[in-house]
UniProtKB/TrEMBL annotation, chain A:
It is found in: Membrane; Mitochondrion inner membrane. InterPro entries: NADH_UbQ_OxRdtase_su1/FPO, NADH_UbQ_OxRdtase_su1_CS. The lineage of its organism: Eukaryota, Fungi, Dikarya, Basidiomycota, Agaricomycotina. Belongs to the complex I subunit 1 family. Its EC number is 7.1.1.2. It comes from Phanerochaete sordida. PROSITE patterns: COMPLEX1_ND1_1 (PS00667). The gene is nad1. This is NADH-ubiquinone oxidoreductase chain 1.
UniProtKB/TrEMBL annotation, chain B:
It comes from the Eukaryota. The keyword Translocase applies. This is NADH-ubiquinone oxidoreductase chain 6. The gene is nad6. The chain crosses the membrane at residues 30-49, 56-75, 95-115, 172-197. It is an enzyme of class 7 (translocase). It is a multi-pass membrane protein. It comes from Phanerochaete sordida. GO terms for cellular component: mitochondrial membrane. Core subunit of the mitochondrial membrane respiratory chain NADH dehydrogenase (Complex I) which catalyzes electron transfer from NADH through the respiratory chain, using ubiquinone as an electron acceptor. Essential for the catalytic activity and assembly of complex I. Belongs to the complex I subunit 6 family. Its EC number is 7.1.1.2. It is found in: Mitochondrion membrane. InterPro entries: NADH_UbQ/plastoQ_OxRdtase_su6, Nuo/plastoQ_OxRdtase_6_NuoJ. Keywords: Electron transport, Membrane, Mitochondrion, NAD, Respiratory chain, Translocase, Transmembrane, Transmembrane helix, Transport, Ubiquinone.
From TrEMBL, chain C:
It is a single-pass membrane protein. This is NADH dehydrogenase [ubiquinone] 1 alpha subcomplex subunit 13. GO terms for cellular component: mitochondrial inner membrane; respiratory chain complex I. Complex I functions in the transfer of electrons from NADH to the respiratory chain. Accessory subunit of the mitochondrial membrane respiratory chain NADH dehydrogenase (Complex I), that is believed not to be involved in catalysis. It is found in: Mitochondrion inner membrane. The keyword Cytoplasm does not apply. The lineage of its organism: Eukaryota, Fungi, Dikarya, Basidiomycota, Agaricomycotina. Signal peptide: none annotated.
Length: 338, 203, 116
């Protein structure tokens, strides 16, 4: 029964799986090293040395962290909704990692060159809210529930601002496709005409990933841990990985949408098979990961009502104003992309 | 293969919708509602209209279901009351069966439906025939469906292809401009009401 | 022992002096920066429009070639089908191969069957 068509189908599936692994394994490694970068960088801001025992300069720290967390005892509250308790962190991790499917690492080097790429990213960030919501509710504890409701309300509020900023970028570029957006930035990086938009986009990204100054929900010194208070060893690893993966993913998306993605001036002719474009994208992502940690080290926390008031009363009018201003400029000077 | 997925998604949507109504816990009911939306979105994406499918996920799952969840989680629903009320529904089952049968009879009189059209069931019932074909022929394409087309794409008909969003925008903002403005005014009215209700006036 | 005259007054009030460029200067600077950006984006978008125009015109210019190719293919297939019909029905008396069953003399392109 082994015939040509069947072999072709099996080979196609295998190659797709290998493609996905080629993207996901370095992503997971980068997420692991992001944790140690954060700790060392925070330490540098605070004039101390971070973890430096485990490997050379503490490089192997994330692996020892992961090992410790896996070997811990998993405590599940007896009155919790056990199915949702396990499913919520799993779904958060899945939707965090699914976002890597359309990031272009070179000219057309994506897992899936989706013509509606931006909508896919927005849909995944909308779905990521559910992991937070159900994790807090299923733990059956008032403080976890309250933390998750606050987290969810903050995330859906700032998602509006995020969508507005991304919409303005799409107006300039003319397409939802990530590769087209990067190619349109050959003229000039989008941060130059849209500097105020970049500012409130970055603020909304900090709030989406619940980073300081918006992290009262998981303030490690006030509430114990917010919505993932009750989740112990392996389940906590999922939340941890999901949070850092979304930090790296949003840094990458920032580099793609505003800073030219893999564009750089051609300084020399590259005849090797090493794609310098992916390296450039990686370096730009690193700059934004650095800025995430820098903001955490420098700024104090916002109180929760200040956070919500800031979004709805201060940022939203600015976002709406720019949504009206940018198309007006594009139409007035007849420079819209058709 | 695509037909199989479409059938599975349609069946999943129907199953989830039944479970929405019969779940005892209201939060579990909303979870199944989210599952209905995701199945419907997958169905639309497999049908070819990716834009509407993904906008289902962004709007229904990302905003509307979150709204439902917030309301249900913040209400003080006592589960014991719900369970008590649920056990009294069994005395209505004969009436429910009667009305359901009436509805099914009406629908199946009007719609020409043969069990052969549901590819999942017919491929199960003809399982032995299909497997036999698979063993005897040398091509796996006997499991696929043959389509009859009438017009091939001629070279002088398409110069540019618009993406779905461009096509929607071309018609919505020119021919449907009036309706677009009317719906935006309706949304504005809908927005004014909660703001007015929740606005605290400083006396 | 404390020095004579007591210690100096400790400064406890916040001291946030108003330094840096004033609001108008920042606004003008950002407007100039964004204006330059929009100018470059405008040039880029006009170039994109010209590229799309070039693409559409190249497709228009290719139409005769593709139509001729399609016509040759359709003609060949129709004749092959006619030959096949003649071959199959050569022993049947009174059968004209290729006779139209409809009374409409208009040309209708053949149906095609696609296996997906």
């Amino acid at each position: 029964m082994i015939n040509n068509n069947l072999i072709l189908i099996i080979l196609n599936t295998l190659i797709s799986l290998i493609d996905v692994l080629l993207v996901l394994l370095p992503v997971l490694l980068s997420v692991a090293f992001m944790t140690i970068i954060e700790r060392k960088q925070l330490a540098a801001h605070q004039r101390r040395v971070g973890p430096n025992t485990v490997g050379y300069y503490g490089i192997l720290q994330p692996f020892s962290d992961a090992l410790k967390l896996i070997l811990k005892e998993t405590v599940i509250p007896s009155q919790s909704n056990k199915i949702l308790f396990y499913l919520a962190p799993v779904s958060t991790l899945i939707f965090s990692l699914l976002g890597w499917g359309i990031i272009p690492f070179g000219q057309g080097l994506t897992l899936f060159d989706f013509s509606l790429g931006i909508l896919y990213t927005l849909a995944l960030s909308s779905l990521g809210v559910y992991g937070v919501l159900f994790a807090g509710w299923s733990a059956n504890s008032k403080y976890a529930f309250l933390g998750s409701l606050r987290s969810t309300a903050a995330m859906i509020s700032y998602e509006l601002i995020l969508s507005s900023a991304i919409l303005i970028v799409i107006l300039l570029a003319g397409s939802f496709n990530f590769t087209t957006i990067i190619e349109s930035q050959e003229a000039i990086w989008f941060v130059v005409p849209l500097l105020p938009v970049f500012i409130f986009y970055f603020i909304s990204i900090l709030a989406e990933t619940s980073r300081t100054p918006f992290d009262l929900q998981e303030a490690e010194s006030e509430l114990v841990a917010g919505f993932f208070t009750e989740h112990s060893s392996i389940i906590f690893v999922f939340f941890f990985l999901a949070e850092y993966s979304s930090i790296v993913l949003f840094s990458c998306i920032t580099a793609i949408l505003f800073f030219g993605g893999y564009n750089m001036p051609e300084l020399f002719v590259n005849n090797t098979f090493i794609s310098l474009q992916a390296v450039v994208l990686g370096l730009k992502t690193c700059v934004f990961c650095f800025m995430f940690v820098w903001f955490r080290a420098t700024l104090p926390r916002l109180r929760y009502d200040q956070l919500i008031e800031f979004c709805w009363l201060n940022l939203l009018p600015v976002a709406v104003a720019f949504i009206i201003l940018v198309p007006c400029i594009l139409v007035a000077f007849d420079i819209a992309p058709y | 293969m695509k037909n199989l997925f479409i059938d599975i998604l349609a069946f999943g949507a129907l199953l989830s919708s039944v479970l929405v109504i019969t779940s005892k816990n209201p939060v579990i009911a909303v979870i199944f509602l989210i599952s209905v939306f995701i199945n419907a979105a997958g169905y639309l994406i497999l049908l070819g209209i990716g834009f509407i499918g993904i906008s289902y996920i962004i709007l229904y799952v990302g905003a509307i279901a979150v709204l439902f969840l917030f309301v249900i989680m913040l209400l003080n629903i006592r589960l014991s009351d719900l369970l008590e009320a649920g056990s009294q529904y069994t005395k209505n089952i004969p009436l429910a069966i009667a009305i359901g049968l009436l509805f099914i009879y009406e629908i199946f009189t009007i719609i020409p439906f043969r069990i052969h059209d549901v590819s999942l069931i017919s491929s199960l019932l003809n399982l032995i025939t299909n497997l036999n074909e698979l063993f005897l022929t040398s091509d796996i394409s006997t499991l696929n469906v043959v389509y009859n087309t009438i017009n091939p794409i001629l070279a002088d008909s398409t110069f540019t292809n618009f993406t779905q969003i461009q096509a929607l925008g071309q018609s919505l903002y020119t021919f449907g401009a009036f309706w677009l403005i009317i719906t935006s005014v309706i949304l504005l009215l809908a927005m004014v009401a909660p703001i007015f209700i929740t606005h605290k006036s400083n006396k | 022992m404390p020095p004579s005259g007591g210690f100096q007054q400790i400064r406890y009030k916040r001291n946030l002096p108003f330094r840096g460029p004033s609001g108008v200067v920042i606004l003008a600077g950002v407007t100039a920066f964004c204006g330059y950006g929009f100018y470059r984006i405008g040039l880029g978008n006009l170039e994109k429009r010209e590229l799309q125009r070039e693409k559409a015109w190249s497709r228009i210019h290719l139409v005769p070639l593709l139509l001729a190719e399609g016509d040759r293919d359709a003609y060949r297939r129709q004749h092959a089908a006619l030959e096949r019909e003649k071959e199959i029905m050569k022993d049947v008396p009174g059968w004209e191969a290729g006779k139209d069953v409809y009374h409409n003399p208009r040309y209708r392109p053949a149906d095609s069957i696609v296996v997906l």
